[in-house]
Amino acid sequence: MTYGFASPEPRCYGIVLVDQFPMMDFSAIIEPLRSANRLSERTLYEWRIISVDGEPVASSSGISIIADAAIGEPLRVDRYLLLSGIVGPQLADRRLIGWLRRADRQGIPLGGICTAAFLLARAGLLGDRRCTIHWESLPSLAEEFPDLNLTGELFEVDGHRFTCSGGLATADLILHLIAAEHGKALADAICDQFVLERIRQPNERQRRATNSRLLVKSPKLYSIIEQMGCHLEDPVSRSDLANAVGLSTRQVERLFRKHLGCTVSRHYREMRLQRAQLLLRQTGMSILDVSVACGFTSASHFSRCYRQLFGRSPREDSALA
């Protein structure tokens, strides 16, 4: 069977690797493109590996990838995809941000995988376009850029902007693009090669449902935890949580102790503190602003609770940002 549509020349991806990028995301781009070439028996896609300085780039697993070029070098590229993982100073690199703005002025489509949406946002290139990011970094990006049209989807394609939550969703994005450019039959054949059941749609859930992650078998407990997650900045009282599911506060306490081994207040507080840790590590927000964003009315109380849970102060974690 012949796959792919006739095209005058291969489409070339410029894959820009940022220090500590995830190898899974890198492979999820390269392998579907390679398989598209193999199955179609012609070169539909090419790729160039790019780093900030042209030097090898270390992934988060310690494996380094050799770059073909540095940013700014003249290359024939049809679309750039930036890969980054761990949030840190590399996502505020002025060289990268300046280069992104120049690439945008040239009209080249730009994409950000996993946390690379931070780079696109800091370069001012997301505007009102739909965008997404890995679920763990979504609150941090939303706090830093509250006006973004941030959806939390698996991936978003909005004009010349591509953003993706990363992980296996990167393969979904690439297969979606291959299907659009060379037909669904080719994309489905690539799925078969990689033993994937199907290409997920962009609006599918990033994370497993709360009841699956916590092994919660009580629908009412699941509903309460979902409510908590939606109200981390403005915590809901125990009585309001109980009323929402038609239980008394005593019954709700029994549910939490039975299924999670803790009180309602403790579970809710730990959810808020886990959000706080992400904000401290991934943004430049002050400790006071983080405490308010996570529903604490007193910065000193926030600091005490934080140290009790994590064994270190908010200031120590903020220094990692």
TrEMBL record:
Transmembrane segments: none annotated. Pfam families: DJ-1_PfpI, HTH_18. Keywords: DNA-binding, Transcription, Transcription regulation. It comes from the Bacteria. Residues 222-320 form the HTH araC/xylS-type domain. GO terms for molecular function: DNA-binding transcription factor activity; sequence-specific DNA binding. SMART domains: HTH_ARAC. The keyword Transcription applies. The keyword Methyltransferase does not apply. Gene3D superfamilies: 3.40.50.880, Homeodomain-like (1.10.10.60). This is HTH-type transcriptional regulator CdhR.
